[in-house]
Amino acid sequence: MKFYDLELSGNCYKVRLFAALSGIPLDIIPVDFLAGEHKQSAMLALNPWGEIPILEDGEVVLRDSQAILVYLARRCAKESWLPLEPAAMAEVMQWISTAANEVQHGPNAARLVDKFGYQLDKATTLHTSERILGLLEQHLCEHQWLALERPTLADCAVMPYVALAPEGGVSLEPYVAVRAWIERIKQLPGFVAMPGV
Amino acid sequence: MKFYDLELSGNCYKVRLFAALSGIPLDIIPVDFLAGEHKQSAMLALNPWGEIPILEDGEVVLRDSQAILVYLARRCAKESWLPLEPAAMAEVMQWISTAANEVQHGPNAARLVDKFGYQLDKATTLHTSERILGLLEQHLCEHQWLALERPTLADCAVMPYVALAPEGGVSLEPYVAVRAWIERIKQLPGFVAMPGV
């Protein structure tokens, strides 16, 4: 499976992290993001959205890190990462949705401003970050993992941009339970890091 | 199944729409959103995020419209709405993620500003709306449905806030294929509308 990747992207890291934790080999193809390679015709043919990551597995071509996580979990991993039982799958899905929504527009967006110079309203990104970190802290004070009391796709989807929050000027200092959860993920067999995590 | 609902919420409508299309009975419980009932203790006990919709099915309590859609599809509907085959599930999931990300922060956010007075950066919401509508138009010029060439959970997740875009000052006039797709959804057996759709 070819994985079109940027080392500094938390969305790409979600996939590399899950692949490492569940022993899935990926053929990593670095994309020259700063040169705009993801906006050029060869990459746009794979993903008209002009974004990475992209996964290519024979005829299957997927955009969106959340969808790629779901694909790899269904295709290659133990069912415990994304169970089929309705309530269990939905519990994981709540957090996959959170990764695409609040985490994307909170800590990820704050980092895009500070680290990559994106023109976004920084105050809104900080407000969204504080709200989601508060909710995560509240949840993780009572749970070791985001869903199902064990590591799931939920943790792989949400953790990267939470751990990278300081690169967007969002301190994790007040969030004791969040930091402990990140450390638990780092202790999982097969864990891989990325710069900033 | 109890469904805590606001008639004017596109996120609630996603669930009402899918339930209607797939013949799932819901016990609708209206929440007095304007009076802030969703932020009061009884509702916060169900969902600490202080948001609706919420689904309550015996012991199972779920927040997040995307997660609720997945739950209902797995629990009550034909598998065609959310197939288990990895590539098919991931194709649907791309659009569920889009609903939580670009659609939420584009047309939904623009409507929150205009219709409910939210303090968001309107220019950003319009920019995100134009981008996602352009990508949808491009996709729907070549496809009748968002995923798998048939109605799936993807259409139920994405359509509501796209159809409501004019309530946020985003015209659908330039998007011929998007409007045709909305009309196709309206022709599905069991379709229900909401104010503004």
Commentary on this structure:
2 copies of one chain form a homodimer. Chain A has 197 residues and is an alpha+beta fold. Chain A folds into 2 domains: 2-77, Glutaredoxin; 80-186, Glutathione S-transferase Yfyf (Class Pi), Chain A, domain 2 (Up-down Bundle). Chain A has helices at 10-21, 41-46, 65-76, 86-116, 122-140, 153-163, 176-186, and strands at residues 2-5, 27-30, 54-57, 60-63. Chain A has a 4-stranded mixed β-sheet with strand order 2-1-3-4, with helices on one face. In chain A, strand 1 (2-5), helix 1 (10-21) and strand 2 (27-30) form a beta-alpha-beta unit. The longest helix of chain A is centred in the middle third of the chain and has 31 residues, at 86-116. The first copy, chain A, is globular and about 45 Å long. The relative contact order of chain A is 0.15. The model of chain A has no long low-confidence stretch (mean pLDDT 97). The interface between A and B is large, with 36 and 36 residues.
